[in-house]
Amino acid sequence: MSRILLVEDDDRIVGFIKRGLEAEGYVVDVTDSGGDALAMVRETPYALIVLDRMLPGIDGLEVCRMLRREQHQHLVLMLTARDSLQDKVEGLKGGAD
């Protein structure tokens, strides 16, 4: 069974995404912290990381950059309310898929 890490600090969004993924048969781990996400990824082979860009503390973009510097090859789907072309480019350059 594939395991997904959901990194999001909005409880409504967490509930919505988690329910949908679990209904499709995925195991979903959740954290609202960039620091915790880094620790979890170092311990668990996730099939996918769904990562909010705007997190308190270490933001999602920095988490993604750190994972790529550490050579983690997980797929990363970045969620964000930011919608400018520059924001999209930054996310992709930071390592999001």
Q: Assign an overall shape.
A: globular
Please bin the fraction of helical residues: 40-55%
Radius of gyration: 13 Å
Instruction: Specify the CATH homologous superfamily.
Output: Response regulator
- Could you state the order of secondary-structure elements as H and E? EHEHEHEH
CATH architecture annotation name: 3-Layer(aba) Sandwich
In total, the number of domains comes to: 1
Mean pLDDT: 92
Secondary structure: number of strands:
4
Percent of sequence in beta strands = 15-25%
Spatial sequence of strands, sheet with the most strands? 2-1-3-4
CATH class: Alpha Beta
CATH fold group: Rossmann fold
Distance between the termini: 22 Å
Helix and strand composition category: alpha/beta
Write the layout of secondary structure elements.
Blueprint: E1 3-7, H1 11-23, E2 27-31, H2 34-43, E3 48-52, H3 60-69, E4 75-79, H4 85-93
Parallel strand pairs: 1-2, 1-3, 3-4
Helix pairs in contact: 2-3
What is the compact description of this entry?
With 97 residues, this protein is α/β, with parallel strands linked by helices. The protein has helices at 11-23, 34-43, 60-69, 85-93, and strands spanning 3-7, 27-31, 48-52, 75-79.
Provide an overview of this structure.
This protein has 97 residues and is an alpha/beta fold. The protein has one domain: Rossmann fold (3-Layer(aba) Sandwich), CATH 3.40.50.2300. The chain is 43% helix and 21% strand. It contains four helices and four strands. A four-stranded parallel sheet has the order 2-1-3-4, sandwiched between helices. Helix 3 links the parallel strand 3 and strand 4. Helix 2 packs parallel to helix 3. The longest helix is centred in the first third of the chain and has 13 residues. It is globular. The mean pLDDT is 92.
